Amino acid sequence: MEVNDFWRGRNVLVTGGTGLLGSEMVANLLRMRANVVVLLRDGVHNSRYFLEGMDKKTTVVRGDLTDFRQIERTLNEYEVDTVFHVGAQTIVQTANRSPLSTFESNIQGTWNLLEACRLSRLVTRIVVASSDKAYGSQKILPYTEETPLQGEHPYDVSKSCADLISLAYHKTYGLPVSITRCGNFYGPGDLNWNRIVPDTIRSLYLGKRPLIRSDGTMTRDYFFISDGAHAYLTLARQMDRPDVKGHAFNFSSDRPYSVLELVRKIIQMYPSTLEPEILNQAKGEISHQSLSSERARTRLGWQPRYTLDQGLRITIDWYKEFLKTHG
């Protein structure tokens, strides 16, 4: 079966459709002729979802993940077959400032969605977005899927909890759930300016020195958003298999970079002669993280399609055009 044939006419719910990953997921699903329903809390007018007119091509349900009845109604009224649960509060600093709202969105929102799916007789596959942060701080890197989930800070804990709740719904009720644990997404459309990639590019566009909140030595996997969407779609298509359904999968570039390495690479590619300013103020964040995507590569036949340089070139070009109008 061709990919397009698999998604053509399939009723798909995407939570968090205006976000970086949500917008990319919706764009891919629309190209493959899926019937897309998007649960939206906020109408972020500059997001790709609205800029590219996706709101005109999808069914928009205004609601919040904490509203169980709205989720239940959406699944039933639009006869949803597949759910991509990517809606969440995703900013570490926001979680540190406001842990309760983060727990409500990321933990309660997940159990509400899963319970509504359990009560539905139509949902056949659910992909839940966890995170590399769910593993917390570990002595042994890279993380594998057998690494214990032990988040310590509010955002990390919210992802550990949502991850475990999702697996519990599969093991207890047989709910068709699989989990994604991805590295740090970057790419066109990220409007969270406190993230390192968009903030660095915007600073260079404005002729300002990029700011590094940490000491620059923290290491992360930086994962291009197109590769992320491809990972989600690949996983969902194969969820009828017993070695896929009910399992977690790491997805990453398998090559961590320090924050300073990343910023210097963006400066070089922009190009600019500005030097970054290292603030060394970051608190409550994990120092070093990296993922092994060996399971996804061998079991799903998935691999990233873009190098960091390729992804950054596309991203820089997008922001240069975006900032001409919206900067």
C-alpha termini separation: 44 Å
Query: Helical proportion?
Result: 40-55%
- Low-confidence region ranges: none
Number of domains: 1
Question: How is the main sheet built?
Answer: 7 strands, parallel
Briefly, what CATH class? Alpha Beta
The CATH superfamily bears the name NAD(P)-binding Rossmann-like Domain
What structural class is derived from the secondary structure elements?
A: alpha/beta
Q: Taking strands numbered 1, 2, ... along the chain, how are they ordered across the largest sheet?
A: 3-2-1-4-5-6-10
- Overall mean pLDDT stands at 95
* Rg from alpha-carbon coordinates: 19 Å
Per CATH, which architecture? 3-Layer(aba) Sandwich
Estimate the global geometry from the Cα principal axes.
Answer: globular
Beta-strand share of residues: 15-25%
User: What is the count of helical runs?
Assistant: 12
The run of helices and strands is HEHEHEHEHHEHEEHEEHEEHEHH
CATH T-level topology: Rossmann fold
Number of strands: 12
